[in-house]
Amino acid sequence: MANTAQARKRARQAVKLNAHNSSQRSTLRTAIKAVRKAIQAGDKAAAAQIFQASVSTIDTIADKKIIHKNKAARHKSRLSAAIKALA
């Protein structure tokens, strides 16, 4: 348990930040799942449109350093490759 006022405040801030970051990660996962679902459906046009919106979300979360920029790039690359592989 935190003993000083400063440590107690930092503990409170950590809880708040953790909740915010968890929410942002959830948004990221939802965006990725939406693209994967469109790919599974086989609709290339819809998948491409959803992918564009998801790229914005992925980049925003990477810019906030909630995920690493390389992880964001990996997700975008794999989703893009999956869309291109659709017939």
UniProtKB/TrEMBL annotation:
Transmembrane segments: none annotated. Belongs to the bacterial ribosomal protein bS20 family. The keyword Magnesium does not apply. NCBIfam families: S20 (TIGR00029). One of its GO terms (molecular function) is structural constituent of ribosome. This is Small ribosomal subunit protein bS20. Binds directly to 16S ribosomal RNA. Pfam families: Ribosomal_S20p. InterPro entries: Ribosomal_bS20 (IPR002583), Ribosomal_bS20_sf (IPR036510). One of its GO terms (biological process) is translation. The gene is rpsT. GO terms for cellular component: cytosol; small ribosomal subunit. Keywords: Ribonucleoprotein, Ribosomal protein, RNA-binding, rRNA-binding. Residues 1-23 are annotated as: Disordered.
